[in-house]
Amino acid sequence: MSQMIFADSLSRLGTESAFAVLARAGALAAGGRDIINLGIGQPDFKTPEHVVEAGIKALRDGHHGYTPANGLPALREAVAADLHRRHGVEVNPDNVVVVPGGKPTMFFAVLMFGQPGVEILYPDPGFPIYESVIRYSGATPVPIPLREADGFAFSADAVLGRITPHTRLIIINSPANPTGGVTPRAEIDRLVAGLADHPHVAVLSDEIYSQMLYGGRAHVSLLQYPEIRDRLIMLDGWSKTYAMTGWRLGYAVWPDDAVDAATRLAINDHSCVNAAAQHAGLAALTGPQDAVQAMMAAFDARRALIVEELNALPGVRCMDPAGAFYAFANIEGTGMTARAAQDRFLEEAGVATVAGTAFGGHGEGYLRLSYASSRDTIRDAIARIRAIL
Ligand SMILES: Cc1ncc(COP(=O)(O)O)c(C=O)c1O
After folding, report:
1. Mean pLDDT across the stretch 114-126?
2. For residue 244, what are the contacts with CB-CB under 8 A and spacing of at least 6?
3. CA 99 – ligand 1 centroid, Å
4. What is the pLDDT of residue 149?
5. Is the backbone peptide bond immediately before 125 cis, with ω within 30 degrees of 0?
6. Does 116 score more than 90 pLDDT?
7. Which atom of ligand 1 is nearest to the CA of 324?
8. What CA–CA distance (Å, rounded) separates 387 from 159?
9. Using CA atoms, how far apart are residues 298 and 158, in angstroms rounded to an integer?
10. What is the Cα–Cα distance from 258 to 227, expressed in whole angstroms?
């Protein structure tokens, strides 16, 4: 019998528990249970029709081969034009690297800086892949606590106060998963001003929810700060905005000094993103945007509903999320831990949610509920939870 000996690093690689919840919910559903899934972070809408057609047309037109590793030139130009339209910034298409989704940019950025002896700052609660990949790289993950009292926004002082001579990268995410928190411009101004004292520190700004803000808020892109453009990696993509999670399409704007390394990582990893998906992504950026607006209007109405319903539950309170499509409910008053609530709500009420602790230690006492579901489904889910509380 053979006995494989894996690299030590493999034991440090974490995962995204939302996928485990999805698998468990799927198993329960396959066994005949009626399950409502508020666990997974993806829009329940379909990709806009004209985008799907562009993907099909690309296949019919024979776009079956490799593309440039960093993405089709027309797509990178469209990304630059879109960033100019939305954020008022100039981006050189040569600094754009198109990758299969949002995640590869995280992986590449952390691999570029992470090694033993290095510290990387990341939000807690935050997207679990940040911490996972930091650990995998051998670097030390340094959590930046995000607090309900601050609306789960980043505090410039909390970030700057954790920088040491060993810090190489800071990961920022606004609007945020799992909290829906949005960091106001004044706080980002202070953060960027403070970074002037730490020229050795790079920033990864995960702006995948940049088109998902509520209450008339405008997105603040870190690209709007020329003073850090030479050390900023800005991640965005199509998954959330255009309901394209399964197409695997995302991009980042890399600083001049890192773009070649990012492209080299892409060549080593996946060669290029599949050509049809890139053509679909081009249609998404250059075509009508009304589907995005309609989706956001629906999310906004659901947001109001889920927050109201959650706040009416005994022992539960929920802040109004300013962005993304997650409610991050405080469940301390129920007396349950986050994990116990996640398990009970799924097993007993048939409602899939994700424990706040899946997003870091500071998520204890919270539960993430994705409101990418219809209003009737949300009402039904909360009624089921109410029945067991
Ligand atoms: C904050 C954040 N960044 C990145 C991603 C990854 O997106 P993708 O599915 O495009 O890899 C997600 C997905 O949930 C996310 O929440």
Report:
1. 98
2. 47, 51, 238, 280, 281, 284
3. 12
4. 96
5. yes
6. yes
7. 16
8. 41
9. 34
10. 17
Count Cβ atoms within 10 A of the Cβ of residue 356 and give its class: 0-12 exposed, 13-18 middle, 19 or more buried: buried
Question: What's the rounded Cα separation, in Å, for the pair 353 and 345?
Answer: 7
Q: pLDDT (tens digit, 9 = 90+) per residue, 291-347? A: 999 999 999 999 999 999 999 999 999 999 999 999 999 999 999 999 999 999 999
Can you tell me which atom of ligand 1 is nearest the CA of 127?
1
**Cβ of 175 less than 6 Å from ligand 1:** no
3 state SS of 328: strand
Question: CB of 371 closer than 6 A to ligand 1?
Answer: no
Q: Of 247, 259, 295, whose CA–CA distance to 109 is shortest?
A: 259
Q: In the chain, what are the helix, strand and coil shares in percent, each to the nearest 5?
A: 45, 15, 40
Residue nearest to atom 5 of ligand 1 (CA): 102
CB distance 281 to ligand 1 below 6 Å: no
Q: Strand locations in 238-283, DSSP E?
A: 250-253
Give pLDDT, residue 18.
80
Ligand 1: residue whose CA is nearest its atom 7: 102
Sign, CA dihedral 295-301-307-310, equals negative
248 C-beta closer than 6 A to ligand 1: no
Q: What value does the mean pLDDT of the chain take?
A: 96
Instruction: Decide whether any atom of ligand 1 lies within 6 Å of the 326 Cβ.
Output: no
Name the pairing type of β-strands 36-37 and 232-237: unpaired
pLDDT tens sequence across 143-188: 999 999 999 999 999 999 999 999 999 999 999 999 999 999 999 9
Collect all residues with Cβ–Cβ distance below 8 Å to 80 and sequence separation of at least 6: 90, 91, 92, 93, 96
